[in-house]
Write a structure and sequence with these properties.
Blueprint (H helix, E strand, L loop, with lengths): L1 H35 L7 E3 L3 E2 L3 E6 L7 E4 L2 E7 L1 H4 L10 E6 L7 E8 L6 E8 L5 E4 L3 H4 L3 H18 L19 E3 L5 E4 L2 E2 L7 E4 L5 E3 L4 E9 L3 E7 L4 E11 L6 E2 L4 E5 L10 E7 L2 E3 L1 H8 L3
Parallel strand pairs: 2-8, 9-11
Antiparallel strand pairs: 1-3, 3-6, 4-5, 4-7, 5-6, 7-8, 10-13, 11-12, 13-20, 14-19, 15-16, 15-18, 16-17, 17-19, 17-20, 20-21
The structure holds zinc ion.
Zinc ion (ZN) binds next to loops.
């Protein structure tokens, strides 16, 4: 009889011991595992600090396509730096890079940039965004282009829905590779970031592209491979083309006299997509060339330099 009680008591004790033990040990075991996850190797942001309206790079000494990042609420995709990985003495396939943009209107300050890779500890870096003076210009346009008629207002609003949708495109596959080309051979008047006082009134939206001063009819080349996601004749932008280069990188071409591609078409690097003109709200013939990186408006001129690394 005593033996039976003892056996029951021991069994109960064992159950309690295991239950309590696991309660105490389980969270520790979990946090221990998290602490033991290795750090992502060689995470670096270039350049630092970064000017507002420019793009930066996150480098991983060892990474993969399943690594991801985030900066100011915008996704960062990683791709293999094939140029570097093919260099003598390097492990092929190890160095990965991600592009991120500091939007032209981003307030100067320090922002977190997070990087995650499955099986590794998530890492948060601090990125300092500097102010940069882009200037103010004064232009005059006919009053009817500023004080829009109800019809023009409705038209511009309709077109904004289309362009907002195009600019929000984030397709997962990177179509571009190697250095971006200049879309036209011509003198660049990189008025990117400049604010405009239009007929005396300051427009809070800064100029989100670079203007190339070119005669009407100059061929416009796609700077990199991509897919045309929108084309049309718009009130402000005139004849316009939007190209998706993948992973949130979008380029656009405004005020064209001719559009030579249609929506959905794949275009190769260097392919002529249109001709320069002076359509839409302009003061003279020029090409407006814009680049958005996951919604961040960045200066296409320094961005081109960044792409020469790959
Ligand atoms: Zn422009």
């Amino acid at each position: 009889m005593l033996k039976k009680y003892l056996a029951d008591f021991l069994a109960l004790f064992l159950v309690l011991f295991l239950a309590l033990g696991s309660l105490f040990l389980w969270p520790n075991a979990l946090s221990l595992a998290a602490n033991e996850a290795p750090a992502i190797e060689g995470v670096r942001v270039v350049p630092s600090p970064l000017d507002r309206g420019t793009a930066g790079l996150v480098e991983l000494a060892k990474g993969g396509a399943d690594c991801a990042g985030e900066f100011t609420g915008r996704l960062i995709f990683f791709f293999e730096d094939q140029k570097e990985n093919r260099a003598p003495g390097r492990d092929p396939g190890t160095r990965w890079v991600g592009l991120f943009g500091a939007d032209i209107t981003l307030k100067p300050g320090t922002y977190p940039l997070t990087v995650t890779c499955p099986g590794f500890k998530a890492q948060t870096l601090k990125v300092t965004v500097r102010d940069k003076s882009y200037g103010v210009r004064n232009i005059k346009v006919p009053a009817k282009q500023v004080d829009l008629s109800p019809e023009d207002q409705a038209r511009a609003a309709q077109e904004k829905v289309l362009t907002d949708k195009a600019l929000a495109t984030v397709s997962p596959v990177r179509l571009w590779s190697g250095a971006f080309l200049e879309p036209v051979n011509g003198s660049v008047n990189s008025s990117f970031g400049r604010q405009t006082r239009l007929n005396g009134i300051l427009n809070p939206r800064p100029h989100a592209g670079a203007d190339f001063l070119t005669p009407i009819g100059t061929p416009v080349k796609a700077p990199a491979k991509g897919q045309v996601i929108l084309e049309g004749d718009h009130f402000f932008s005139g004849k316009a083309i939007y190209i998706d280069h993948g992973q949130g990188l979008i380029s656009m071409y405004f005020h064209l006299s001719e559009i030579l591609v249609s929506s959905g078409a794949m275009v190769d690097k260097g392919q002529v997509i249109g001709k320069t003109g002076q359509t839409g709200r302009v003061t003279g013939p020029h090409l407006h060339y814009g680049v958005y990186l996951n919604g961040a408006r960045i200066d296409p001129i320094p961005f081109r330099k960044l792409t020469t690394q790959f």
